[in-house]
């Protein structure tokens, strides 16, 4: 089993992801922007969060043009798993592997705090046995406001691709529980096949009790069990 974790100039969450994988006895492989030769040996790729290339132009756009990301559609088509966390979600949208865009928070401020998300029924094994559960998980972003056309939103709903929605502690999805203005309180989505998950919250920062929550471990555990 080989799980890659991206490292772009400016990102800062790859070590957190590697630490989480290590807690399951899995040694992750750091993947840089030119490491296309390593991609063929991987079973999964986690696009870690941070500020790739300083978020210049707009978040994720420069990383999306790198050699490794240009090879990603083929990697996905082969049925391999991809998880994009925060900036990784932005990159997946910029590569058009996932629909929509992440734009500036409605408050126009950087938001860093714990939130609750409700897990929806999903076709993705990455969220297996998680439907209707409420997770406590942190966010840290300036551009986490998910936007898509009405047609795209309708398609996401039809195909059960809206994986996570911001909610309150009781699972109520409302404007008051929306930290960034995302349409339909969307915190994460999948592709139609379910092997790609993009989410703004940080599951790697909610994977140990000493951090305040273990809810995020589910995603990594499901990934590893599926690969096994």
How would you characterize the overall build of this protein?
Helix content is 25%, strand content 24%. Strands 2-1-3-4-11-10-9-6-7 form a nine-stranded mixed beta sheet, with helices on both faces. A two-stranded antiparallel ribbon has the order 5-8. The chain is built from eight helices and eleven strands. Strand 1 (3-6), helix 1 and strand 2 form a beta-alpha-beta unit. The longest helix has 11 residues, at 217-227. The chain has helices at residues 14-23, 36-39, 61-64, 67-70, 72-77, 87-94, 150-158, 217-227, and strands at 3-6, 29-31, 44-47, 81-85, 101-103, 111-119, 134-141, 145-147, 162-167, 186-190, 196-199. It is α/β, with parallel strands linked by helices and 228 residues long.
Task: Please summarize what this structure is.
With 228 residues, the chain is α/β, with parallel strands linked by helices. It has eight helices and eleven strands.
Features:
228 residues, alpha/beta, 8 helices, 24% strand, globular
Write the layout of secondary structure elements.
Layout: E1 3-6, H1 14-23, E2 29-31, H2 36-39, E3 44-47, H3 61-64, H4 67-70, H5 72-77, E4 81-85, H6 87-94, E5 101-103, E6 111-119, E7 134-141, E8 145-147, H7 150-158, E9 162-167, E10 186-190, E11 196-199, H8 217-227
Parallel strand pairs: 1-2, 1-3, 3-4, 4-11
Antiparallel strand pairs: 5-8, 6-7, 6-9, 9-10, 10-11
Number of helices: 8
Backbone structural class: alpha/beta
State Rg. 16 Å
Taking the alpha carbons of the first and last residues, their distance comes to: 7 Å
Question: H/E element string?
Answer: EHEHEHHHEHEEEEHEEEH
Rounded mean pLDDT is 97
Strand order of the largest sheet: 2-1-3-4-11-10-9-6-7
Any idea what the shape is? Answer: globular
The unreliable regions are none
Task: Please outline the major beta sheet.
Answer: 9 strands, mixed
Q: Into which percentage range does the β-strand content fall?
A: 15-25%
The helicity comes to 10-25%
Number of strands: 11
């Amino acid at each position: 089993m080989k799980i890659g974790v991206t490292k772009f100039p400016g990102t800062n969450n790859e070590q957190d992801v590697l630490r989480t994988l290590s807690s399951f006895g899995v040694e992750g492989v750091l993947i840089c922007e030119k490491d296309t030769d390593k991609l063929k040996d991987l079973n999964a790729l986690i696009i870690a969060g941070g500020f790739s290339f300083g978020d210049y132009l707009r978040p994720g756009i420069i990383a999306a043009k790198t050699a490794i990301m240009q090879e990603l559609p083929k990697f996905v088509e082969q049925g391999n798993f991809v998880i994009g966390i925060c900036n990784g979600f932005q990159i997946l949208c910029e590569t058009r592997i996932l629909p929509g865009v992440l734009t500036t928070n409605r408050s126009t401020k950087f938001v860093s705090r714990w939130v609750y998300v409700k897990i929806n029924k999903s076709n993705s094994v990455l969220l297996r046995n998680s439907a209707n559960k409420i997770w406590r998980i942190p966010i840290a972003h300036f551009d986490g406001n998910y936007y898509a056309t009405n047609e795209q939103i309708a398609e996401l709903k039809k195909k059960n691709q809206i994986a996570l929605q911001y909610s309150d502690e009781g699972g109520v999805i409302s404007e008051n529980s929306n930290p960034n203005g995302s349409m339909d309180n969307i915190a994460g989505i999948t592709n139609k096949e379910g092997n790609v998950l993009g989410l703004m919250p940080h599951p790697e920062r909610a994977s140990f009790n000493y951090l305040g929550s273990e809810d995020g471990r589910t995603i990594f555990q499901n990934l590893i069990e599926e690969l096994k």
